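# step 3/5: fold
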Amino acid sequence: MDMMDQAKVLELLENREVNLVRFELSDMHGVPRCKTIPTSLFKKKANEGLNFGLGFMNKDPGYNIVHGSKEYLEKRNFGDCVCFPEYNTFTLLPWCGNTTGRVLLEPRLEGIPIAAYPRNIAKRQLDRLKNLGYSLLSAHEHEFYLVDKETRKPIYDIGNLRATSNNFQLGKLYTEIAKQLPKVGVEIETLETGCGAGQLQVTYRPAFGIRAPDNAHTYKISIKEIAYQQGYMATFMTKPFFDDESNGAHFCHSLWDVTEKIPLTHDPDDPTGLSQVAQHWMAGILKHAPGLALLLTPTVNCFRRYDFTTPVNATWGIDNRSCYLRVKLRDDAKNAYMENRASSSASNPYLTLAATVAAGIDGIQHKLALPKGVSGSAYNNMNLPLGTSMIPHNMKDALKAFLDDEVICKSMGEDFVKLFTAAKMHEMELEEKAKREAKVNGDGDSDWEHTLYFESM
């Protein structure tokens, strides 16, 4: 991608006759939020900054108040932050006729980047990794469901993984996705249907550094908007249909040198096939896996995902889908990577990356030993190394594991920990309220989840 600056953006706006520009943020939950301005004001707003209410830091995905986090806003008089464009993220939106542009923002308070903002947390962790002499090449694999936007019913009735007959029904949508996403920097590799009725997955090429979660942010909102134009609604809610498959978001990544030229994950001479630094990195991730659960599976609904396709313990294995970390080794070292299979599709890609890097760095700095890899099913306790940690299967346990993990909490930062845990306690309160009401009136207790997550995620 060409490096952008203000002059290049202004030239593009003028030459392409762009009318509007979205100044866009990703909130604590990964939900895009924006203000749209006329292009005539772009230079002014870019130089002076755009005021943005701080609610995106302490609201739930539906922008409802999270009472336990009001202190954060009270200290700041319920005021605004000032946001400045990250010019390298500017793109035209082709499905808007190329008359609308979009740029991601850096929110600041008193001229200082907001430490608790997820994108800034990810940047800090990547800087820490760079200072150790490494860079990260990564991509997310967010699954989603496609439904009729009026009836909310899946676009086909029976899930059948990669069935050509289901693919055929999506011809026009596939064409639009494949045509439009590369124009916004997301290079599509595969499009396929999932196991669930109406479930899809689109994979795209990895990128270095902060561009990877930027791509994930762009991918998710692009899919939703393109689908809507085709008469559909796309949801990245983890478990929108409780009797069908869940949406995962595998995080595929590999370690490289700081120049982004030399791959450092594969070592064909080691019995594991992994370099020493990759082994330490993976050991760190496995050590912190319980504490990462709150960040990788961040909603009450996410914990409905646990079944025979979701990792339940901190394990790794060569091309083993039952493990937490699935390692893919190829003859070409450039193609070796690690796949964290624990993330759900409702996770915030900036936090997924930040948490992974923080855990991996801890492994590198302390030269943690990698446990023995699992051969066979990781769901069979007989195959597990002694002392293997289990992954929390509910929000309460995940919250405790997160707060007990000093390394991860310190990496995320005090303000973030307070804001994020307050949001999770808020969701648990909503769940308990729904359960109490269900006992009284006999109704189901899941409607609140659809109201909160289905459209926003």
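# step 4/5: annotate
The two ends are 28 Å apart (CA to CA).
# step 5/5: archive (pending)
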